[in-house]
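This part of the workshop introduces the protein records we will be handling. As an example, a complete record with its sequence and its structure tokens follows.
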Amino acid sequence: ASKSRDWQKLEEVSRKWLSWDESNADAWVFLATAAQEKGDYELAVDCLGKIPDEHSEFVVSLSNRIDLLMRLNRPLDAERDCRRLLRVAPWFRKAYSILRFYYAMALDRKRLIETARTAIKMRADLPTAYYYLFMAYKLKTRNGYDLNTQWRKEYPENERFEVAQAYYLATSVTQKTLLD
């Protein structure tokens, strides 16, 4: 079903497989693939979260889950999964990159710097790690307000997003006033 790209059939077969063996990681991977291809990202996230750390597809599966979580504006869940992924694969650059982006947008400078330093120490750094490290307190973004607004919809009680949203709003108004 996967090779023929028949996602409905792949979902049916995967669900049947899981009815026999709910702990089968391969069945969860196949169900996640079908769900993602059909646009059911919440189901895909749920399935990918069931892949155990020791499974051969763990790194790829959790990386895909992190991407979906960020797409669904759930960065706190993505952060948790990045940390889980880095415990298993401390060399995985993409997890560091996502964490740096998230911490920069949420104005968590301390964690931004820690993550950049850890990536460099683990030799999992990209040139952007140095940029984030050196510019941590001077970063200015154009989409910080919009992202934090979206994130607050998922986590309305989160003060970090509220503060970052207010900061980005205040700095954009100040910049606009100075330019006028």
Q: What stands out?
A: The CA atoms of residues 119 and 125 lie 5 Å apart. The longest helix spans residues 159-179.
